[in-house]
């Protein structure tokens, strides 16, 4: 009798385990952000905003501070962008107005170089921009605008009396606004506080536009 009961229990157990296999406990590893820049072991000098490794005459630096590394990185980028927080409004051909922010081009050159965690678990992140590289980038952008302005001016010389000339002058004014923004940035990152010298100024174009408008009225 006992053997029969044991066999029955064994069959029931085998049947139940085949239908309801044991659930595996899945243990997830904690997420750690991959960092491509080193952690400072001791309190770095750049915490104060001045760095021997990245001197002010060669680099722009900013510090981000937060309870997490990710937010500290975002704060470092935001603090750097505030150095170039310039916005301009450019009139479009359909009559609308587009707002252009200056920081986007320069932030491409931003690098995160180091981070440190204090005894309270607060994260500090160092962000830098190489002044020489940023200056060269802006110089090329300004030169490209100047080349375009000169092209429009040369192509407009043949048709000063008709409406397309005024349209081209307005296009040039928009480009000059953009150029002024880049020049503001250029003066921040370079030692040249005058900016990049250009052949046509805003006053030159405004004068030509006024003359064109007056000549159109007379006709």
Q: How would you describe this protein?
A:
The protein has 219 residues and is an alpha+beta fold. It has one domain. The chain has helices spanning 2-19, 69-81, 103-107, 131-156, 163-189, 202-218, and strands at 59-66, 87-91, 97-101, 111-117, 123-130. It has a 3-stranded antiparallel beta sheet with strand order 1-5-4. Strands 2-3 form a two-stranded antiparallel ribbon. Helix 5 packs antiparallel against helix 6 (202-218). The longest helix has 27 residues, at 163-189. The radius of gyration is 32 Å and the shape is elongated. 19% of the residues are buried. Mean pLDDT is 77; it is low at 19-32.
Q: What is the molecular shape?
A: elongated
Q: How many DSSP E strands?
A: 5
Mean pLDDT across every amino acid position: 77
N- and C-termini, Cα separation? 123 Å
Strand order of the largest sheet: 1-5-4
Note the total helix count.
Answer: 6
Count of distinct structural domains:
1
User: What is the alpha-carbon Rg in Å?
Assistant: 32 Å
- Protein structure class: alpha+beta
**Main β-sheet, in a few words?**
3 strands, antiparallel
Beta content comes to 15-25%
Order of helices and strands: HEHEEHEEHHH
């Amino acid at each position: 009798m006992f053997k029969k009961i044991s066999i029955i229990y064994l069959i029931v157990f085998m049947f139940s385990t085949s239908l309801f296999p044991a659930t595996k406990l899945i243990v997830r590893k904690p997420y750690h952000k991959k960092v491509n820049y080193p952690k400072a072991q001791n309190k770095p000098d750049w915490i104060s905003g001045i760095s021997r490794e990245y001197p002010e005459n060669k680099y722009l630096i900013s510090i981000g501070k937060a309870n997490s590394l990710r937010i500290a990185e975002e704060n470092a980028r935001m603090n750097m962008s505030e150095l170039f927080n310039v916005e301009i409004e450019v009139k479009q051909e359909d009559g609308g107005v587009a707002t252009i922010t200056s920081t986007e081009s320069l932030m491409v050159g931003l690098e995160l170089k180091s981070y440190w965690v204090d005894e309270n678990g607060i994260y500090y992140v160092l962000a830098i921009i190489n002044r020489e590289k940023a200056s060269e980038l802006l110089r090329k952008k300004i030169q490209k605008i100047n080349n375009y302005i000169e092209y429009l001016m040369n192509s407009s010389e043949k048709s000063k009396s008709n409406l397309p000339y005024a349209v081209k002058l307005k296009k040039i004014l928009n480009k000059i606004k953009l150029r002024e923004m880049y020049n503001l940035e250029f003066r921040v990152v370079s030692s040249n506080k005058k900016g990049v010298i250009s052949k046509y100024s805003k006053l030159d174009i405004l004068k030509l536009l006024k003359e064109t408008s007056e000549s159109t009225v007379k006709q």
